[in-house]
Amino acid sequence: MSSHEQADVAVIGGGPAGLAAAAEAKAAGASRVLLLERDDRVGGILNQQVHDGFGTKVFNEALTGPEYAAIYEDRVNEREVETWLKTHVINVTKDRLITVHSDKGLRTIEAGSVVLSMGCRERTRGAIGTAGTRPAGVFTAGAVQNYMNVRNLAVGRKVVILGSGDIGLIMARRLKLEGAEVVCVAEILPQPSGIGANLVRCLEDFDIPLYLSTTVVEIHGKSRVTGVTLAEVGPKMGEKKGTRRFIECDTLLLSVGLIPENELTNKIGIITNPVTTGAVVDDSFRTSVPGIFSCGNVLQVHDVVDYATMESEKAGTAAAIWATTGKLPDADIKVSAGAGLRYVLPATISGTDAVDFTMRSWREEHDQSVIFKSGGEEVRRLRMPHMEPAGMIRVRVGKGRFRRIVNNELTVEVGA
Amino acid sequence: MNSTVICIVCPVSCPCEVEWTKEGGVTKVENNQCKLAFEYVEGELFDPRRMLTTSVPVDGGNWPLVSVKSHVPIPKDQMLNAMKAIGDLRAKAPIKVGDVIMPDFIGSGADLVATRNVAVA
Lengths: 416, 121
What we know:
The complex is a heterodimer of chains A (about 425) and B (about 120). Chain A is α/β, with parallel strands linked by helices.
């Protein structure tokens, strides 16, 4: 038998984004807030990120992942958010009818508002198409982080890491500290993907070499990995002849990117942005479907959890206001990414309140500016000493500036 | 001397341009976005330290491991020694965030403290 429940706000995913959204939804006046989490605990990836560096923007100190998660877990508990663990959301309709599966069987929830905060999963070997055999010993970096930091399992003794994303760099240090040999990190791009701080404290500190414009072209071994073949790549990612070399190892870690888990978003029929693959949202984090909001890594991949928290707090507040009053300001001003930017978010704004715009540049840039323009005139400009694709850019624009907007259009671009 | 020191205090990773001498210390820091860089750069040039974060096995807990950190940074060249020093350490549930798992664990004045709550299983 299935049961039927009602909630003002249902939040899907109990990672940092979902925790922040649920806590703020409750604080903003929603009476029943449900936080739906498929794992047996909330906190998401923070539970396995035992390193520090979280919270420098929100708390002005560098906390570890579990400490950061514990603060928000306490907050949702104090505010009496109802958390359903080991609960899989299998469907959400446009009318916000949610179907979940758990050990209590199938249940449906009628929600005033829904917040999509499902986060990301890791890109795997299949998604990057490496040649070779199919031995044991090939892992995604996040899976190894979970084995080592949560489950107390070791994965190998001699490790090659493909991809210089932050999780890969952090796992290089973690493996080294736990006594494994980390032979090298290989990155296909000509520049590292992870942040500078991690290149210093995870690689340089431990003399772990980073090979740029280099990738794994073959994996060797029958039952277990025995080595990998590395090769250099040219500007168009093609293999450079004569650069192949064999590296002996028993483990290959892949840190080759994250895939936002937007299956539910797409199933609902929400309009998405082809660059982020996440929902197109306004400055209240509303999607194209009324009453459905999106925030956190499922919306756009963040490199700093603090910003995911701030974004999700706004989404949670807006979701509560919509569920209880049915009113949010109309977002009629269209925002587009101009020269130099891969994307900008939100896609539309109301102009009634300050907005934190988030964006990523196509290239590394020095001494350039982020320029907001409307009708050919400048609305706001922010000097950026340094921009790179690996670093999300966040610019606050006060509501006074929006008075200069004409024809309800705003373009954001990189310029001198 | 002139050095480029990447500040590791936060993910922004400012590539600080530093002027310094062995005797007079740091005389100029540029290219930093916030003032936390000054203290970091000085430390990095004269007494580099790092936070140690790792985990310790737990007996009787709802998690097999408790994540831990040095409550203050430890000398950078002591990181691997510190891991050896706590190699056989075990903790016992229940544990609260901030509990000292091992006081002054390498004799540098840093305590090893829990960063996760672990309840009794």
